[in-house]
Batch of 4 targets.
Target 1
Amino acid sequence: MGKKSRRPAGSVAAPSAPDAEIPVVGGREPCPCGSGKRYKACHGRAALVEASRLVARPFEGLPAECDWVALREIVPAASMTVRLAGPAAGEHAGSEVHVATVLPMAWPAMRRNDGNVFVGLQTAGSPVDPSRDAAAALLGALAGAPGTPVPDTSALDTTYRLQDLVDPAATPEITVHDGFDFWLDPSAEQTPEVRDSLERANAAVVPTRRLQSVEAAYWCQVGERRHLRWVMPHPEGELLDGIARLHAAGESGLGEGTRYVGSFRALGIVVPVWDLTPDAEAGDVEDAAKAFGERLQQAMAVTTPLTADERRARSGVASRQLTLR
């Protein structure tokens, strides 16, 4: 004889919709499925599992994905203004916040006394999904009082990702800085800790400029050497085939005295790198970068198999790759 049901007579179980139809809410809020449980104890369990999975391209789907990768991985001092949108942004939808490469004391986020919110990308957070960590820091700063930082994200709600908060229709405004003075709130007195952090950070800045003729290409000077690092969104196989075709044809450089030296992977994106001439400024490679981009598009459009020379070039191109998480 089967066990008797403990459900009161006449009661009806709450309907359970497919997980894909359950909207995401805060972990302590009632689950939208109608079970009466908190979200984190109901459909939020699946969201928690999802949050623990390594995301190969954490900024995919954001406007200017390649610049997000650049600010996270290769640019020392820059900021990007983005607009918030969507239900996850709540009352802050339509407002603007600032994404920075790094913040004082390596804080994940801060809200200045003047109300401006900054989120840092180069933090010591989990490598699983930087987008989720940044979203948690952003929401923490939005909820915080003016003049307070978000010192860590360990106790914050990681339900949302940046893709849930950033307006996909708004083009970010990107500014590369010579130092980190953009941190400072003119109306606030700076603590000795912040001033010391600022001085140390400014002393370590590598001169960097963002090109205007192409997207997500950054000139930099490291000691006496100058380079161009260009974050490209193309599928890796197609990109490397295209570069190999150009390399075999002697067209992979950016003008006389420059050379393609290899690439690295960062957050699921390939970043080709060139050595430039010792006196090359950012403006000197604008036209050459634009012309290379056009050549690359043509090379990637070729559908015939690689020639023997191109295969050798492809092997050399692939062997000069590194991977950054």
Note: Confidence is low (pLDDT under 50) at residues 1-16.
Target 2
Amino acid sequence: MRDRSPGTCPSHPASGAAGQPPAQFPASRASGPASGWLRAATICAAIILPATDAAALWDDKVELFVAETVTYDDNVFRISGSLDPVTTIGSSSKADTYYTTSPGFKFDVALGRQRFAGGVTWNFARYERFTVLDFDGHDGRAAWQWKVGNDWSGTLGYTDTLALASLENSRAGILTGTPNSLATRRGFFNAAYAITPRWRVQGEAGRLEQDNGLAALTVNDIVINSGDLAVSYITPAGNQLGVGARLEDGRYPNRPGGAVNLAGDAYRQYSVDLIAEYTMSGHSRVRARAGRVTRNHEQLSQRDFDEGTFNVTYDWRPTGMLTLSAVARREVSPLDDTQSSFVLLKGVALYPTLQLSEKVSAAVALEYSSRDYLNDPSLVLVGSRTDWLRVGGLKLTYRPVRSLTLEIGYLYQSRSSTIAFGDFEANIATLSVRIGF
């Protein structure tokens, strides 16, 4: 699904160095997660709280919460249907059930015209069978939304996450080593200035650092510095038309000078886009960005890229109960969990949401996309690679009181590929409880 609950933690670790023997995993474990006491407390609170809503902290400016999510995944390591799981992961079954306990807090405080928001969620994931995937991660963020006078505004922010890397984008489609963790930190500062009531200029500077936990993959640690600048014309109705430019510089700090790594190399990327937002009626709005991306690599020029890209989103709300978002895109995009991979992503998606009642809602996600690995020299032995991904999901949410949220979800994922063993199918079912104080 497009939006993840606070209890969700990535469950498909990336593979290790190619050519290593298949990893062997423990078959089972008698005891549950170390955080079992917290799980029990969550369930007890879920039973008690519907009778009375939790007291607000600091007039709802601060919330403490805890979530418990139970997930069943019938193909944890995203193994091809053509492979024998016994020889691949040392187990006759590809399925597992795991539990994620997620305590945390969030805050949203306004001081005059300034607003401070953020929070931290800790994720403790424990597997019944594949205990090698047990992992303690976190997701933290903080932002100062500032205003100066009537013309200046912006945000100073920082995010910090620690999670397991996804196996879905493994180049070989086979687990070949120890699970890898990814620590990602990003700081940014943006500002907007109203030149006149109709004209606005805005810009942003940011820095992203991503570190791999697996020693063999630290050569893929990356630092990305970026800058954006845009000028827009905005009508009284909120419609706007503008032009934006972006510069991105990616470097690998753990590679010796002059060394070539076939998985990628330092790059500089430029883009210029037309930007538009238009309200077609009282119920629908379109947001679009289209332009050209030029990406030059420092060592491997055969990976250079210079083509058109676009991203269009259409939001439609015909009634107070139904909302629909449709997305079409063609973008140069890093893969989900690793900034050091380079693909051309083309796809469409549909996200309808239905408010069944005041307390019950249903959300659907339908996605189809292709990923072209752009002239990646590491694929020289298998030729070029293109993947096609199909995703379908349903999530039901029940919120009997403000402090308690119950969710049940189902997600289907399928991938086909031009390379051997790059395909997989997976069915994932989740049940979660979130309690806020």
Note: The first strand starts at residue 62 and ends at 73.
Target 3
Amino acid sequence: MTENQRPLDRDTAPTSPGPLDRDTASGSPGPLDRGAADGRTSGAPDVLDCRGQRCPLPVIALARRVPVVPVGAVVRVLADDPAAANDIPAWCRLRGQEFLGAVETDAATGFDVRRVT
């Protein structure tokens, strides 16, 4: 753990989706939920922006998103934490999801995961 990171405990760990996951004012799907809401199973991936979040938060966000997208849909996790390169493929192996690979973008790496079950 670096000096900028704080340990997570039960009292400070996030328990609900982040602000980009849901429009909190209306309770309606936010911009990142639209891929799951329209039943899309191919085409552009559903993007989950986890930039600035440190381990294990990107994997936790992925674990929350996968059950709400249709089987066969792709979720792209944008993460700038170096630990995500190991954590996301390991989570896919443990949970029976398909890790498609990493894509470099301007600000972060995108990790593509296809929902299998």
Note: The radius of gyration is 14 Å.
Target 4
Amino acid sequence: MIFSFGKNWQDFLKSLNPARFAIAKSSLQDFLGLSDFKGKTFLDIGCGSGLFSYAAYELGATKVVSIDVDPFSVKCTEYLKQKAGNPGNWQVLHASILDQKFLAGLGKYDIAYAWGSLHHTGDMWQAIKNSANLVADGGMFQLAIYNKANGRWGSNFWLKMKKFYNQSPVFLRKILEYSYMAKLMAYFISRGRNPAKIIRDFKNKRGMSWKHDIIDWLGGYPYEFATAEEISSFMKKNFAEFSLANTKTTDGLGNNQFVFKKAR
């Protein structure tokens, strides 16, 4: 039982425009603290729509490698590569971050980017370890992992909900999607916020789409999670050569975000 993120992203590609590309580039620059990627190699682990591989290429990365286990995500990224003129320094590969044989020949990268992907592998901790091992000396590892939220509607509730969603027929999935969207809009209104504005402005968060992120959230399975402290402790225990360069955490169900920098 695995959700196809790529099928969702294929629909998302229809909404891509220069503004979304610009926002995606800015989000990379801001969190990594880099004005551009010139002279740097970029590995996109779980490339999904391919938007951030495209952004890295546009920022001047000397080499971009995009990998995803979902063949539909690979097709999405290949589409954006073609849109960029099919550059020779951008490679798109259908592969898993858990495949040790594949990883052995992948090399090291100045930036390893795994935003919201490793918690969907079915073996999150091994995936984090494998990803960190692909960072070159002096390089950076950008990571986003779902937070472990407690309570009645916390992470364990959503684990069950995601299983239910993926086991449901298509018509029931649609009911769940629109019901959840309606619930969110009602919540916004109850807090005096304009749901139309929130949905319209959602692209300002990494250039993404509110509707497609909702489907991504409901369907995203396998699903694992960890507190920010658990991620930091894991990195400190297993990768003493990395230091925390930037972080943004949440108390809710969203992603805890990190940039770890590897010593030279």
Note: The mean pLDDT is 94.
